[in-house]
Amino acid sequence: MEQEPLPIANRFDFLTEEIVFTILDCLNDDAFAKKSFSLVCKSFYFIESRHRKSLRPLNSDFISRTLKRYRFISELDLSLCPRVDDAALFQIASSRSFLRSINLSRSRMFTHNGVSSLVANCTNLVEIDLSNRSDLTDSAAAAIAEAKNLERLWLARCKMITDMGIGCVAVGCRKLRFICLKWCLRVSDLGVGLIAMKCKQIRTLDLSYLPITEKCLPPILQLEYLEDLVLEGCLGIDDDGLATLKHGSKSLKNLSHVGLSSLTYGAEHLQQLILAYSLSVTADLAKCLHNISGLQSIKLDGCSVRTSGIKAIGNWLASLKELSLSKCLGVTDECLSFLVQAHKELRKLDITCCRKITYASIDSITNSCTSLTSLRMESCSLVSKDAFVLIGQRCRFLEELDITDNEIDNEGLKSISSCSKLLTLKLGICLNISNDGLTHVANGCSNLKELDLYRSSGIADEGIAAIAHGCPALEMMNIAYNDKITDTSLISLSKCMMLKALEIRGCPSVSSVGLSAIAMGCRQLMVLDIKKCININDNGMIPVAQYSQNLTQINLSYCSVTDVGLLALASINRLQCMTILHLSGLSPNGLAAALLACRGLTKVKLHTSFKPLLPQPVFNHMEARGCALHWRDKAFQVEIDPKGWGLHYGRSHEAV
């Protein structure tokens, strides 16, 4: 009798758990790869559950199931779960002996009892984020105080917590290194002083918008290891109070405040200074910082600057690495040229809306600061097209370039295509560029991840096809309000498998055909804006619902989607935010059904006309689930603005 061949051994069986863990370490940035890995075989499924150390559930309903599978989690992020009650925290506390970090910054419904159970059972906790819980009281702070090993604590906008609660934290959490009390409006000098006196290991202290005065500064400045102090919006501290900084902390590295004219001897190791939207930058103010040789970054956004002040900055002992003059009034060619010639080691420069500068400034910048990695110069309207050629010729290390609303043409793009390290390129409202310019970019900037072509009306399908072919790593694409864009562009972009955000609002020639291609090809898509794409209907929503399972945010306003298409989106478990204004095919019953079916929603923007038409139980259900309904009364917009270049500010974050 012929002997049966021996079964072939599974080669994976020869891999030790340590080797498999090493493989999984290489997949930490790719959730899809990890999921695929765990489905190879039972042993890999088990090993992946032991390897995972961080977890971010999409819905509070999944907490119980996921915690049973992943028993060695040390970092638990519940920021996507608005509905987390005490029962959920009790369950976490009962089995999470390895837990070191928990984020509850977007969660509601739990009380101090849940926090107390969590702290009592998870003794290894070093990080807790309770931001945005405006109803938490001193009882919750007292519960936190029992976390003896706590090092980092966020209490931003916990507006009911008072000095008494902060005092409990100060006494109980002596190992604190970071604490954020931003907008804790009932915390005064007393509470802040207790933190400073009891928590001697503090490195970072955020006191933004607290009703404090200079009385709390002396103990703060005695903190031996203090590096970051944020006093933004603390209107009770004036220049006289800030004079105490002259005798203060020697380790302070970062300070942010409105009105720092008394910083002459403030901190020997100051590295970053933020004076945004505050005061006039004069020679006297600049001279205060002359001797701080370690200063690396200064942000003067929105300040009024004088030539004498800018020149004084040019005479500093420090060699700046980052400078932001965004929307500063008074910046001229003369002062900017002097400044960049003095600080040739600049890596990041922001001159957004410096409307007085011309070719001369760009010539000086590119000639002096050849190591720039980031240049932002949106709306520098007097800069001629020839200046952009200099950028590509001299600044070959650029990774970020924002030239929105400028006179750049195809020759400028041809030069910029020499910047092979470019990752982000913003060309919104650049009316002189066309497909030829984009082809140059595609040929030279293969690493590009973000491209903004908002209202760049010379762009058509040919240019988008070149980008899609030459920049396969593209993650974010904005081609909004370009009427020459058709389904052909979307079919081209569907080959960009890493695409995560796509904005095509106001492109009337795209349809469900193009959107279907995107859905099938770009499986990692997370943000989709198809507002005013009137030819996209339910036929486009079906493939989106089937293939775009990572979608978290969608804007459907003014589309031709009906109840059927909206309800189809319920199959996307990750979907959190929807904007659905002026959908003519949407009925009250269809809207109610979709709201109830999309269980992961946290925010929905709706037209007020639906408010009296929805039954009260729907509102009750959405509130209980932690979903906020935002009502808008904006009138129907018939025509796309033909002169959009005058309306570009805030274009990526329009309300509807």
TrEMBL record:
GO biological process: SCF-dependent proteasomal ubiquitin-dependent protein catabolic process
Record-given protein name: F-box/LRR-repeat protein 15-like leucin rich repeat domain-containing protein
Domain of life from the UniProt record: Eukaryota
Bilayer-spanning residue ranges: none
Organism of derivation: Fagus sylvatica (Beechnut)
GO cellular component, as recorded: SCF ubiquitin ligase complex
Pfam families named in the record: DUF7885, LRR_6
F-box/LRR-repeat protein 15-like leucin rich repeat domain span: 83-247, 331-519
